[in-house]
Amino acid sequence: MGWGVLEDTKMAAPPGTATIGASPVVEDAVIDTKTLKRDGNIILQPQPSDNPNDPLNWSPMWKNSIMIILAFSSGVTTALGPMVTPGIRVVAMKYRVSLDMVSSLIIGFLAFWIGFTTFFTASGANIWGKRPFFVLSTVLLLATNVWGFFATSFPSLAVMRVVQGIASAPLETLVTSTVSDLFFVHQRGKRLSIWGCMLASGVLLGQTISGAIIENISFEATFGISALIFIPILFLMYFVVVETTYTAPREHTIQVEEKGSFWSVTLDEKETYRQQLRLFRGRVSDESFWKGCFKPLPLIAYPAVLFSTIVYGSYFTWLLTISVLSVTAFSAPPYNLGPAQIGLTNLPLLAVALIGSPLSGWMADAIVKYMARKNRGVFEPEFRLTLMLVATPLATAGFLGFGMSVQNGAHIAWPMFFMALHSLSVPFASQASLTYVIDCHPKDANQAFVTINFTKAVFTFLATTYANGWLIKAGPRGVFDSITLINLGVCSLTIPAYVYGKRFRGIVARSRLNQSLSR
Known about the structure:
Elements: E1 18-19, E2 25-26, E3 29-32, E4 38-39, E5 42-43, H1 60-79, H2 88-95, H3 99-128, H4 131-150, H5 154-182, H6 188-216, H7 221-239, E6 255-256, H8 273-276, H9 289-294, H10 296-299, H11 303-330, H12 339-344, H13 347-373, E7 378-379, H14 388-407, H15 413-440, H16 445-492, H17 494-510, H18 512-517
Antiparallel strand pairs: 1-7, 2-3, 3-6, 4-5
Helix pairs in contact: 1-5, 1-6, 1-7, 2-3, 3-5, 3-16, 4-5, 4-7, 5-6, 5-16, 6-13, 6-15, 11-15, 11-16, 13-15, 14-15, 14-16
């Protein structure tokens, strides 16, 4: 039992358990790690093949360029949802509809359709690769922003947001699984932190910029400027973000004591840059498209996926809920802020998010390497969950403080301070939940994130639809005291997930469900 993670009684090393340091005993054989490929003292997991087309073998500059472009594109895409938040009242007054209707159809609908579409885009990415979906997504997002700029009615705006949600799905879902295509276990936390920084910037900085645009130009101008941003993104997406899905087997054998060993060698030629730029490669998998579409549904039965779905979905929902409710609170007495001023309240949140994201990414890798080193070199995915020790108290203090300060009409610095505390908690919870899924189920990462994002979309849709009405009925204290209790209940799931996680992974590996889904 390493660091409180209980051993599985039937499997010494369930899927997810990996050797990244000293040689452990695995079942009845002693693994000689001297023959395995390394990064310094760290054993590479997964082990790369000898094929130059294996993304794990690409240069760090190439891999990091792809990661940064996808992270930035994902951040801009994520910004499309909340960037209209400062203009909720403007749109409601212009088209004579309620605040809840604007919040639901212009923000919530976008999130819902993102979640719904990911069932199809994730399955398609597994069969035809990720690149065509990334490029098509960017083209459609450019087109929908042009549409939004010229929209002259509320129905047109609402329909545009549905199409925009559908177009956003690949950049919302496939980036995280691309991390597992390109990077080794001990490198993933830092790369996901880049993605986290971009998401935080999109959610928070997007509102700040859009608030000024809405107040000084028009609501529709936010879409026009977004369209201009997607033009260079499309250029970079086409010429830099090549296909990262790798289907050839990585057939290395490890040395077992007294039995000898060998490495398999592939003689494939490296693809030319022109070959890498082709959008369609035909089928890269023999899986059924429709089976892949439904595969995310049973994955919710996997404990790691269920845990991460609840944690990530709830933390993201609370972030958007506070954003929506802060507009209502700050635009009313005693604050009486305009759209541009409301947008500026996100700057402190952005500052702490830009600190928290790289810090959580560094901790996600550093802590697990330390824990693995003290665990005879054995890495357990459950080590990632220690980041919840940071996320839980920060979120609790943020919720309680925001509710009390707004209820009492405290100086605006206080609710902003508590919003910043909660904002700081989000990257730690996101790192813990997302890296945990990638480490436990790397082959099912695409479908697992469909489950996670769809649940997040449903949570977001419900929150944006009913949050303002709830605030009016229960008041700030009633709303945020309730959120605090719900979130503490969610965070408490970390304890059984950590202690029994290895046993859960063993049960999943032996289950009929896993065997049927693996066919």
